[in-house]
Structure formats: structure tokens, C-alpha cells
Design goal:
Blueprint: H1 2-37, H2 44-51, H3 55-62, H4 65-78, H5 90-97, H6 101-129, H7 134-161, H8 168-178, H9 181-190, H10 195-210
Helix pairs in contact: 1-2, 4-6, 5-6, 6-7, 6-9, 6-10, 7-8, 8-10
């Protein structure tokens, strides 16, 4: 019976890998089309055609268009083909394990360099389409609220190991504003900063603005 069991596990693994490849093809096609012609002007049929799959496969893999938009955001944050809960992300665990505030800040600034680079173009698409797409407007508010909640946790984590220059509520707002993907777009995309310079700016700004002397 053992060979049969192993064969079944192997087949299941191949199916998961194939599903992940298909989902990534769909996400890549959606991001390319949304960027080129806008969210509203892009039908799901065009995404299916660009990805080289059937329309039913698109719906089965990623859901409706608003669900596809959410998945684009989640995978931009996680850096993979699947959404990863915040508490399971490597950088979050590293931040919580770090013993001092400066190390926590350095880890988070490094993480934001990668996340913002992936997330900024996706959020730009969502933000532009939200006024005409009620479901996207709700998604936009949910993402903003979730970011604020995560910043609250990060500020509290800093306060556990260091004296803050400002009260925790202000610290949360400062982090929320300065790590917004829009700032990455302004500095890196529009002003030509390197991602490394952006990372260094975030770390230095947070040290100066948040940590007491």
C-alpha cells in the first residue's frame, strides 16, 4: 500500500503546483491589463485570454474581479502566489524577536522596501477605480484600516523595548503615513530614488521621529 500512498501524495503535490502556476499567470495578466487600460475597462475575458486559460478557470482560481483585486494586494504584500497572515510573515516574526527598537525598525524598513515596490502599482490601480466601483471602495477602506491596525501593533512593540518621543497613537499615525506605498511612488518612481535609499530614509526617519534621545 505504501507506493500507492506516495503516488497519491505526489499527484496531489503536482496538482497544487499546477494550480499555483495557473493562479500566477492570471495575476500577472490582470496586473498587466489593469496597469495598461485600467481596472474598469478590463473584462475578465481579456484576463483569461492574456493568461491563456479558460474564463471558468479564472473564476475557479481567483474568483470575481473584486476578489482578484484583493488577491493582487495580498500577494503583493506576501511576495508569493498566496496570501500570508501577518503573524506568519518572516519579517513580522523577526521584528517581534528583536531585542531593541533600532533593530526592529531596520527590519521593518527593509521589509517595506520590497513590499512597497510590489504594492504601490496595485494600490494605484485600486485607488483610481474605487470612485466608480463600490466594492473596490470598500476594499480600499479595509486595506487602510488593516494597515492602521498593523501600525498600532508595531508602535506597541517599539514601546515595549524603548522610550518613544511621541505617544503611541501619534507613533502609529506617523508609521502609517510614512510607510504608505504612495510615498514609495513619490520618491522611487517619480523622484528616482533607489529602493535602498528609500529603505534608509524610512529607518532614519522612524528613529528620529519615534525614539526618544
Amino acid at each position: 500500500m505504501q507506493p500507492v500512498v506516495l503516488e497519491g501524495l505526489y499527484d496531489a503535490s503536482k496538482r497544487r503546483q499546477a494550480a499555483a502556476r495557473t493562479r500566477q499567470l492570471i495575476l500577472d495578466a490582470a496586473l498587466e491589463l489593469f496597469t495598461g487600460q485600467g481596472y474598469t475597462a478590463t473584462p475578465m475575458t481579456a484576463i483569461a485570454q492574456r493568461a491563456g486559460v479558460a474564463l471558468d478557470t479564472v473564476y475557479a482560481s481567483v474568483g470575481r474581479k473584486p476578489e482578484l483585486a484583493r488577491l493582487l494586494i495580498e500577494t503583493a504584500i506576501s511576495g508569493g502566489s498566496q496570501a500570508i497572515p501577518a503573524e506568519e510573515r518572516d519579517y513580522v516574526q523577526a521584528i517581534r524577536a528583536a531585542a531593541d527598537a533600532e533593530t526592529k525598525i531596520a527590519i521593518y524598513a527593509s521589509a517595506m522596501r520590497g513590499i512597497a515596490g510590489r504594492l504601490a502599482p496595485v494600490l494605484s490601480i485600486i485607488q483610481q477605480a474605487a470612485p466608480a466601483e463600490p466594492e473596490l471602495a470598500v476594499l480600499w477602506r479595509q486595506i487602510a484600516d488593516r494597515r492602521a491596525a498593523n501600525m498600532r501593533l508595531f508602535a506597541a512593540d517599539l514601546a515595549e523595548v524603548a522610550s518613544l518621543r511621541v505617544d503611541p497613537g501619534d507613533a502609529e499615525d506617523i508609521i502609517w503615513a510614512t510607510n504608505a506605498p504612495e510615498l514609495y511612488q513619490l520618491l522611487v518612481t517619480q523622484r528616482g530614488w533607489s529602493p535602498e535609499r528609500y529603505e534608509g530614509f524610512l529607518a532614519e526617519a522612524w528613529r528620529r521621529l519615534l525614539l526618544a534621545d
